[in-house]
Amino acid sequence: MKAWVVAPILILVGVLVSACSKPAPINLINASGTPEARSSADFSVPGKILFVKDGIINLWNNGGVRKLTAPGSAFDDPVWSPDGRSIAAVIVGQNHSDLVILNADGKLEKQLTRNLSNVQVQDSKWARKPSWSPDGKALAYATDLNSFHFGLWTVGVGGTTPTHANYRPLGAGDVDSPSWSRDGKKLAFIAAWEETTQLYVLDSTSGVVKKLTNVKEGVYDSRWSPDGSRIVYAARVDGKHDLWSINADGTSESRLTSIGTARSPAWSPDSQYVAFLADQGEGFDLYVAKLCQKPGGGMMTSEAKRLTRGLNVDAPAGLSWTK
After folding, report:
1. Which of 2, 12, 67, 137 is an S-S bond match for 261, by CB 3.0 to 4.6 Å?
2. How many angstroms separate the CA atoms of 179 and 318, rounded?
């Protein structure tokens, strides 16, 4: 598989900056799916969060976890539609992958791409990282369709022919993790157009691409906030992986965590919280932190709250949060 490779993740150390108000502990879900009783006094995580474990899409909601898909089909990159009624995901074959739509209960409703070649296996293609347009009518995604490298494409949820996004690459290399702006006019994404991967924004009308980051060891897993103000991403700095955010115009870059293994961020629908995955020695588990303003500008987070324990979530498949 011509997968997009991310640097290895280190062991979790430390805690998040805690100048925001610290919420009380919440229930943890262990590897068997059994809640571990903890006080949930004044804190609750609203909504529903999707994640993948062993190719199966799971749903975290109100302190519990349940499987939405069954063994036999392998899924990646699930993401809620803007109205929370559908899930776009990638279904993975032996030598290809395709975009599909499932209902909110995980039932397959339609397949949007047909990347398995009927002629030669080497002609089969890969699709990854779908992102819903704000109006819920289209998906942006990364694919190596008609190219050696992964590029930005869009496809209508009604089943239209996939279309290459209007832009000129700034270098040779793959793109990943597209994410639409609130007004649907721009796409944030990661590209390997330089020595290391960086964050870029595409103006879909003009085709102009703007580089937002210049991180020596690279960035990945970008997500635009629902309110349109900021983009969150994972960055590797001094060999450690943490979450950062930046204004949509490229100003006010802020480090959100100081953990060392944080990745796969997902915004809450109100843009007030960020869910993410981190490894504390038991594989990747689900965490949530509240965002707040730093004195003097920029963003920071509360101490992170751990929602699962020992689940060993498929970290590259990411997270998605809805009401």
Report:
1. 12
2. 13
- Dump pLDDT digits (tens) for 146-203: 999 999 999 999 989 999 999 999 999 999 999 999 999 999 999 999 999 999 999 9
Residue 3 lies in a domain: no
Is 234 in contact with 243 (CB distance < 8 Å)?
A: yes
Give how many domains the chain has, as a whole number.
1
How many other β-carbons are positioned within 10 Å of the β-carbon of residue 285? 25
Is residue 293 situated within a structural domain? Answer: yes
**Whole-number Å distance between alpha carbons of 201 and 178:** 9
- pTM for the structure as a whole: 0.89
Rounded to 5 degrees, φ, ψ at 123 are -90, -5
**CATH number of 165's domain:** 2.120.10.30
Give backbone dihedrals phi and psi of 121, rounded to 5 degrees, phi first: -60, -40
Nearest residue to 236 (alpha-carbon basis) of 257, 250, 252, 207: 257
Please give the Cα distance from 112 to 100 (Å, whole number): 6
Q: Which residues pair with 60 in a beta bridge?
A: 49, 65
Quick one: CA dihedral 173, 193, 238, 256, positive or negative?
Answer: negative
Question: Does residue 137 fall inside a structural domain?
Answer: yes
Identity of the residue numbered 76: D
Does residue 254 fall inside a structural domain? yes
Domain containing 86: what range? Answer: 28-322
